[in-house]
Amino acid sequence: MQIVLLDALTFGNTNLDAFNQFGEVEVYQTTTADETLKRITNADVIVTNKVVITKELMLSCKKLKLICIAATGMNNVDLEAAKDLNIEVKNVAGYSTDSVIQHTFSQLFYLLGHSRYYDEVVKDGTYSRSPIFTDVSQPFFEVKGKKWGIIGLGSIGRGVANIAKAFGADVCYYSTSGVNRTEDFQRTRLEDMLKSCDIITIHAPLNEKTTNLLDYEQLLTCKDGATILNLGRGGIINEDAIVRIIDEKNLSFGLDVLVSEPMRENHPLLSVKNKDRLYITPHIAWTSVEAREKLIAGVVQNIKESF
Questions:
Q1: Cα–chain-centroid distance for residue 122?
Q2: CATH code assigned at 50
Q3: Which of 192, 202, 214, 243 is most solvent-facing, going by the fewest CB within 10 Å?
Q4: Residue 181 has pLDDT above 90, yes or no
């Protein structure tokens, strides 16, 4: 059996030896659209994270039996075509839940505690010249007693909610699907959440209901001093709206996801004046060592179950 991994660079240094048990393994760090066909023509199994697999590509792969998506989202594979061609498609769900939850709090505390400022104050020698032992020039607040709104109460959103509650936050949620998912936390309308919450975190998928869910008009209604974090998908918050409002209103934003990834050069977000209120990480929330190991183990298990 021939197994082809198309974009192994996304797995970092995660051990891939488990694939060798199935037969011949070809590992490519990255694969462009022009390179895909040549690399998968003789494959029995394709492993892809983001490389797109179209109907035309599948028709050219006479041996192809299984497409393993090394991710939860399946929008990079033509699922209808795969079904028509009797090619099985499997994804891996839940592998990064704990990693994303942890990164949510990492982003929050970076912004809430002014970590960049205090780190620089020490390292540039300012603290050494201080007449007192402490620096309270950038005040921060406790999570306890604050109102925390969660957009999207799936497994990640619920995990964040439970930890936020342990910190003493008053947690509410907005359901993007309209489904009441729990009695443990108060369900609220989006407009009420924006007006009342000190912290808002997004853990929802991108779809027709969530695209530009938070646009300029919605951000204008947010509580002064609020912190808004997007750990869901780029496009749920309008990036142009962030560029505009972050220099107009006292709001802080943490983004791990963007509309276009990698971030395009000279993105307007890089030119905002209030840089201390913007923290962007390069889509790393899912990438803890443990999460990547779970992901590969899940892909291997999917292959075992199919043959």
A1: 31
A2: 3.40.50.720
A3: 192
A4: no
176-201 burial string, b = 16+ CB within 10 Å, else e?
beeeeeeeebeebebeebbeebbbbb
Catalytic pick among 24, 261, 290, 305: 261
Q: Is the pLDDT of residue 47 over 90?
A: yes
Q: Which of 114, 158, 203, 233 is catalytic?
A: 233
Catalytic-residue membership of 283:
yes
- Our answer to whether residue 114 is catalytic in this structure is no
The C-alpha atoms of residue 205 and residue 177 are separated, in whole angstroms, by: 10
pLDDT over threshold 90, residue 177: no
Instruction: Print the domain residue range for 258.
Output: 97-280
pLDDT at residue 138 in the model? 95
Answer whether 258's CB lies under 8 Å from 265's CB.
Answer: no
Burial class (CB in 10 A: 0-12, 13-18, 19+), 263: middle
Phi, psi of 185 (to 5 degrees): -130, 150
Quick one: pLDDT band at residue 254, thresholds 50, 70, 90? very high
The answer on 159 and 74 residing in a single domain is no
The residues, any chain, with a CB within 8 Å of residue 260's CB and separated by 6 or more, are 234
Task: Select from 190, 199, 208 the least CA-distant residue to 171.
Answer: 199
Q: Give tens-digit pLDDT for 196-243.
A: 999 999 999 999 999 999 999 999 999 999 999 999 999 999 999 999
Catalytic residue among 103, 114, 283, 292, which?
A: 283
Do residue 107 and residue 74 come from a single domain?
Answer: no
* Identity of the amino acid at 9: L
Whole-model pTM: value is: 0.94
Query: Cis peptide before 262, with omega less than 30 degrees from 0?
Result: yes
Dihedral pair phi/psi, residue 14, rounded to 5°:
-60, 135
Q: Which of 40, 42, 85, 37 is nearest to 63 (CA)?
A: 42
* pLDDT value for 7: 97
158 catalytic residue (yes or no): no
Residue 180 has pLDDT above 80, yes or no: no
Query: What is the gyration radius of the CA atoms in the chain, in angstroms?
Result: 22
Distance CA 76, CA 58 (A): 13
